Amino acid sequence: MQSPDAIPSPALIVDLDRLDRNISSMQAACDAAGVELWPHIKTHKSVAVLKKQLAAGAKGATCAKLGEAEAMLPSGVRRIFIAYSLADVSKARRLRELAGMLDELILAVTSEAHLEVLEKVLEAAGISVPVLMAVDTGLLREGVRTPVAAGELADRIRSSRRMKLAGLYTHEGHAYQARTPQQVELLVRAAEDSLEAARDEIGEDIPIWPGCSVTATEFLKRFPVKAVRPGAYVFGDLNLAEGPGGMTFDDVALHVLATVVDRPEPDLALIDAGSKVFSSDKYSGNITARAVDREDVNVTRLSEEHGFVTGRGVSNLRVGDRHLFIPAHVCPVVNLADRVHVVRGGEVVDVWPVDARGRSD
Ligand SMILES: Cc1ncc(COP(=O)(O)O)c(C=O)c1O
Predict the structure, then answer these.
(1) What is the pLDDT of residues 145-166, one digit of tens each?
(2) Ligand 1 atom at shortest distance from the alpha carbon of 141
(3) CB 3.0 to 4.6 Å from 269: which of 36, 200, 317, 344, for a disulfide?
């Protein structure tokens, strides 16, 4: 067995016990509520992690991209929801092949303009699929904005020979702005109202699929949904550990291992992890990452190969020290790495490839 001290930095370190705990507690919450779990694989992009989620009881997987779905097939997954506006006719053959390898492939319809193109993709693929209609509940990304638009889009779906309306979905990612559990509750209530208004207008009791780690347990507690699609819960990050989404620092299962490479000023340390490791996502204005073992040691600026570490605790950092950092947002960090090092009981027990790394196709 290798010691973590021998892992060359920068590297991504996964705490296996915490990962297993995050997977089983989300699954237990879903099971207790009688709700299906379709975790979003965008966070881990890993066959090994999806296998664990499926073994724990996940009903299927959610992906953003066709390439991610293809990369997850070795996990044995049989049901996939591609929660994205698929609008590229050149992907028709790949889509048909993917559908042929699954028991259930669900696609998203996100607007009337999108429906028209998706119809062409499905014609070219020669397949018919169940679709979930996107309803915007406050993120202001994809999805119908009003109940009337939901009713009109539902009519268009009903008259399509390639699509069958199977439900409504939303990604309530604006929940990351919430600072208290009360704000999360209010936001979930508002999302419920939008989803119910859309369903009333459509005039069918179709299933509802929300999806976000911050709101998952609140939805499970209060509102009858068919499935939830959290992603980031599996590893956690600063957004989740500092926010009201139900995770703590002790739940965070993925850290960036980095080495202090220089101390050019008394209040500044440079580490060997820059934007090519952390991505540009920030927490609370300017924090890219926070050291786990020291108060007030934060990565606050990046160049490609350097992280600029500032804060009260920086005076204690020495060149050559190795530290673990919690990234602001874990998903893009994983997508920048070829592999993660899996640690349990102070030993490296495995190295997993990031199988869908870069599969944004
Ligand atoms: C459509 C969709 N569903 C689910 C998720 C999962 O959200 P989270 O990673 O916050 O749990 C995302 C995240 O971006 C998403 O875009």
Answers:
(1) 999 999 999 999 999 999 999 9
(2) 16
(3) 317
